[in-house]
Specification:
This protein is an all-alpha fold. Helices cover 88% and strands 0% of the residues.
Length: 125
Amino acid sequence: MTGQDKALEFEKIRGAQRMDEIGAGADAAWNVGAIETLRDAVRTQGEKTGVRWADALSSSVRPVITYWFMALYCAAKTAAFVAAVTAGAGWGTAILYAWTEADQALWAGVLNFWFLGRVFDRVRS
């Protein structure tokens, strides 16, 4: 390999590194923009628009999703419980196996969201 070939190879490597740096910088800028947009969206989520039906619809989203999820969750747990009892498990055993640590964590999160979130909302107001 000649000196000119080595110099050409070096320039290729240097160019590839520069392109990687440019890509990393663009990714970082995009991430910062995405975080700013998310922060603005969360901040403005609770603001009123002055349009009654839009404000009512906006304020109903979280409760409706929570009720819907709770109904689906309870239906799935009831089906699992009934299946266990039908398969011969006792009621107590079926209940103990239907309620897992994952269920406990999930519901702790839901309850914290609804009840502690309101406490923090009052403190911030």
